[in-house]
Amino acid sequence: MFENIINSVSKYITLTEEEETVFTDLLERREVPKKTVMLREGEVCQFEGYIIKGCVRIYYLNENGFEVTLSFAIEDWWVSDIASFHERKPSAFFIEALEDTEMLVLTPHAKEELLLSVPKFERVFRILVQRNLSSVQDRLVKTISKTATERYLEFVERYPTIPLRVPQYFIASYLGVSPEFVSTIRKRLTAKKEE
């Protein structure tokens, strides 16, 4: 159960057997059924979750009450509302399981205990936050500078399995376009491949 998360962490730090045990003892395994909302707007996020199996999305409701997808998370990714988790403030987001999902979770108390017991984990979480910020900045630039078609093509290239796993309207929401637009792009791409 812990092999994947240990391999993931080992990309950034080397753990002794004792440190691995401290880490794994603090993790809580959760099975989350499909369509479960794990975090609601206004709640304080109580987890940082490493996904063993499944697919999750983070979204918010805009001023018109429409869902706007901010990100997806699949196997070997972490999911949380970082600001809510660390600052203990109400979240502006929802986190929902799009598939039956299995996660290993750190609660705020467990993470604090981990960082006190194995300080080198600061490096792991710093790198994860840096990567997340880099991804958010990259997405922001692409939203401003790329056409919807270019954004879709880059999304499919970067996350090839997600379009096979989530409804088209979630991808449209992520890209800031209509589901019909995504359908049109897909049809055009299929037609080009068949030529």
Describe the 3D structure.
With 195 residues, the chain is an alpha+beta fold. It has a domain at 3-120: Sandwich (Jelly Rolls), CATH 2.60.120. It has helices at residues 3-9, 17-26, 82-87, 108-117, 121-145, 148-158, 162-165, 168-175, 179-194, and strands spanning 28-32, 37-39, 48-53, 56-61, 67-73, 78-79, 94-97, 101-106. The strands form 2 sheets. A 4-stranded antiparallel β-sheet has the order 1-8-3-6. α2 (17-26) packs antiparallel against α4 (108-117) and α8 (168-175) crosses α9 (179-194). The chain is globular, with a radius of gyration of 18 Å.
Structural class: alpha+beta
Number of helices: 9
Shape: globular
Quick one: CATH class of the domain at 3-120? Mainly Beta
CATH fold node name of the domain at 3-120: Jelly Rolls
Cα-to-Cα separation, first versus last residue: 46 Å
What is the string of SSEs from the N terminus onward?
A: HHEEEEEEHEEHHHHHH
